[in-house]
Amino acid sequence: MSADRLAGLKKFTIKAAVAALWLVLWQLVCFFVDMELLVVSPLTVLKRLTQLAATADFWKYSLGSLGRITEGFLLGSATGAVLAMLCHKSAFAREFFSPAITLIKSTPVASFIILALVWLTGQRVPVFISFLMVLPVVYGNVFQGIREVDPKLIEMAKVYGMNRQKRVTKIYIPSVLPYLMAACRTALGLSWKAGVAAEVIGVTKDSIGRQLYYSKIYLETADLFAWTAVVIIMSVALEKFFVWAMETTGKKFRLVRRDSNAAGVKQYQ
Amino acid sequence: MPLVLSNINKSFGEKTVLSGFSMEAAEGERVCILGPSGGGKTTLLNLIAGLLPPDSGEIRLPEGKISYVFQEYRLLPWLTAEENIIAAAGCTKELAREMLAAMELGKERKGYPDDFSGGMKQRLSIARALAFDSSVILMDEPFKGLDPELRERVILRVNEYCKDRTVILVTHDRAEADMMKCTKIYEL
Fold first, then answer.
1. Domain A38-252 belongs to what topology?
2. Is the CB of A170 less than 8 angstroms away from the CB of B112?
């Protein structure tokens, strides 16, 4: 067995052992609390999850939430990135948008959810909330990334007569990509948390949030745990997919080293 | 048309770097700028490259483009050696490979600058400058860090590829000026 495979196996074993330890701890808590209304056992959650997954509604609700949160995330990322570019170019734009960004960052998410419930239809509220959570994170990181572009590389490009398109694709995008990646990874988690919260408060039709709300109303703790597990699984899966997509695109268009990840970190073989 | 600098003055705050400096390089001529560290040699090249404006004085450049071997390499870390040359110089893959081979980096064409030694980065920077279709080449201590034998071979190749180009060489080492067949030496 090669050293790489051995290291991979070791890493997997450690992760599996840690996961198993947490499951045992969870089971112990259940055992001592001994009240399913407060804490359900991992086995009960798994059983309930399996039952739910066998229904068509489970997929309708899960995919509904996934679609809305992904839409908000993508809109927020794109707007944040464009805004960062604009604010980097124009001091006026920077001054103009700065209070709005500060306001979005400091306002409690619950306030936005309630406002959005007044302004929008139920289905659009989670999209809007995800969008709002993602925007300042991506804006801040991309703006910082543009500022950190090595001016010496820009001078080199100037001397060698690299046109605007080349400067953007060969210098700016590869320099900013690690910042964008870091922002998106953070923002993805935030968009799930805030998006599902918006679904709970807004009791959005065909959503995981609505199911969480019903779990609370009907004191179905197993359902609450099962739907929470679904949110976690989907959030992690979306993040993994996003990282994979960014890495593949980055390598294809030569925005990162072929032997590195999208964050620009070299992966030693 | 010659490259002419007349009565150039340049200061950074209180510090005067160049005071009334003048020089001339005819088309295809090799000129060496000698001087101690902090003497304004790099500033002079940056003025010629248009990266800095002079406080006063006149700079006249010949027709055509300028390539520059920067002292700090200025390579794109996410691109391979070959891609670095093509991206900046806008040349063909064949020419990029030829220049890499001339700089004894043929086998490293798919390597990344961050994995290169200082000397290799320097040679890659030279290869990029040679691959660019320029009439003037500015070289800021281009052979620093190369061992004597390699330096000799590299200079030989640079001479070969710079036959019709004006070269402004900045160095501490007068021997390099001789090997580069510089016809004029200015001391700063």
1. MetI-like fold (1.10.3720)
2. no
Q: What are phi and psi of A56, to 5 degrees?
A: -70, -35
CA distance B185 to B170: 10
With cut-offs at 50, 70 and 90, classify the pLDDT of residue A263. low
Burial category of A154 from C-beta neighbours within 10 Å (exposed 0-12, middle 13-18, buried 19 and up): middle
Q: Which two tokens stand for residue A70?
A: 């992904």
- What are the tokens at B178? 């001789």
Give the gap in angstroms from C-alpha B16 to the nearest C-alpha of chain A: 23
- Percentage of chain B beyond pLDDT 90 is 86
Q: What is the pLDDT of residues A112-124, one digit of tens each?
A: 999 999 898 878 9
Give the chain B residue whose CA is nearest to the CA of A154: B74
Candidates A170, A256, A264; nearest CB to B87: A170
Long-range contacts of A104-113 (CB under 8 A, 24+ apart): A104/A132, A104/A135, A104/A136, A105/A136, A109/A133, A109/A194, A109/A197, A109/A198, A110/A197, A110/A201, A113/A197, A113/A198, A113/A201, A113/A202
Distance CA B125, CA B119 (A): 10
Residue of B nearest to A251 (CA): B78
pLDDT at A1: 67
- pLDDT (0 to 100) of residue A261: 60
pLDDT digits over A178-218, tens only? Answer: 999 999 999 999 999 999 999 999 999 999 999 999 998 88
In terms of CATH, what superfamily is B1-64+169-188?
P-loop containing nucleotide triphosphate hydrolases (3.40.50.300)
Query: Which residue ranges make up each domain of chain B?
Result: 1-64+169-188
In whole angstroms, give the CA distance from residue B184 to residue B188. 13
